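Suppose a classmate hands you a notebook page containing two proteins, each written out with its sequence and a corresponding row of structure tokens. How would you begin to make sense of it? This section walks through that situation. The first entry is reproduced here exactly as it would appear on such a page.
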Amino acid sequence: MDETVAPRPMRGQLAVVAIFALGVVFGIALSFVLVHHVILPDRMRPRREGPVPVELLTRELDLDAAQQEKIRTILERGHETMRGVLDETSHEIRALLRPDQQAKFDHMRPRSPFPHGGHGGHDGERPPEPPH
């Protein structure tokens, strides 16, 4: 039984290569669109530092002086609570990690959106290391 395999037609091979090439081109194009029109614009938006400014609320809601002071107090209390929760959560996670993982985790943690501390505060510095 001497069966010879007939060579595949050249058109079929070219079609496979062409389909593969088109897939690569469309993949690159889709990646470009996602990165430049979805991911980067979202990251390039200016971040609002600190709490919602009372001035903005005053302007938009026409707050009187007493309302402004009460809202400022409420916002500060809320931010203190959130800062505490974020710090506690990070410390709990960090305690479960090996030293090499802790170093990576410390660099992964984002800056705090709240002033006066948190995960790096306004200045972007890392908080002191908790005791091991």
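The notebook's second entry, a different protein, reads as follows.
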Amino acid sequence: MSVQIFSTAREAKEFLVERIALQARRDAIPLSDVERKMLYFSETAWTLPDMAEVNARFDSECDSGEYERKIGGIVRNIQRAQVKDEDEQRKWNDALALLRNEDHYLLVLIDSAGSGSVRPRGDFIKLVLTALAIVCAVLVVELYLAGRQWGYRVGRAD
């Protein structure tokens, strides 16, 4: 049985926000004070005391779609790095599990990062090439079956 690392949702949230801010610095992705504070947003659970002001500033200064993509990229980089560090991955997962009992914007940001909404480079080309290969295979089978139906023998001269 594993020991729970975080005793409160606040501790779990602070851990996740700290990891995101640290990874943003590593990736040289600037996070404004408002963007960092928005990671704490919740309508029903613990949040920063000035969240109403932060939320108003965020709405007027930031593009939420761009922000969500930015945080999603940072989270994906964290998840890639955690593959090498089981202890960090366990802490991350424990923090998420504790927060899932409440409503947090941070969970939306993290969950959408894992949804694959941003495809890796070259993924579209692989998709197109796979589709072309399938179409070609279907055409070859169709031509073979059509030839058999009309009595053509492939490779034999009469």
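A careful reader of the second entry would note: The two ends are 77 Å apart (CA to CA).
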